[in-house]
Amino acid sequence: NAGVTQTPKFRILKIGQSMTLQCTQDMNHNYMYWYRQDPGMGLKLIYYSVGAGITDKGEVPNGYNVSRSTTEDFPLRLELAAPSQTSVYFCASRRQGGGTDTQYFGPGTRLTVL
Amino acid sequence: GNSVTQMEGPVTLSEEAFLTINCTYTATGYPSLFWYVQYPGEGLQLLLKATKADDKGSNKGFEATYRKETTSFHLEKGSVQVSDSAVYFCALSDVTNAGKSTFGDGTTLTVKP
Question: How confident is the model at residue B113 (pLDDT cuts 50, 70, 90)?
């Protein structure tokens, strides 16, 4: 199993540009999450999904959109990039049920908006 | 809402020293508690977890006990190694709310030979 994979690893955007951060997991997990990590800070939840076709906002959703058309994929869309979106973005997944609540993280995408 | 407060860093220790990183939390209900470790340029990896009061999580010589009375989950290791140098995050997860997690700000540990 590859676990949780994210692409790209690095990206530089200009203000106002758009992009999609890709996230794929091969563990058949129902739950998926997007976090951002600002320097010296913990992770903040952007959006999450409890299954294909179901998404909901987290703590810091403004400026982002998500979709979940399949169990495996959970892309994060940035529209009109702003310098405040410079951060490292992590995708995570979790299995539903069985009493387990461990999240598995991807390696992250480092985004700079200039 | 839920929150996690971690001991501020950075923390610098000599090899074989004793490590404590404090973590306290505020939550409604009965969350699960976690310690994650992040090595440079990588994502977070689960270090240990505890799912109910008085549970002790342990892994690779690290330990933490879920203390409901003090709402704490302090991380300890008896003898640190240079390879333990990383950023450590305390987190809680609310399984009744889609397993959404709340993270502390992280504590950077540097171990010198």
Answer: very high
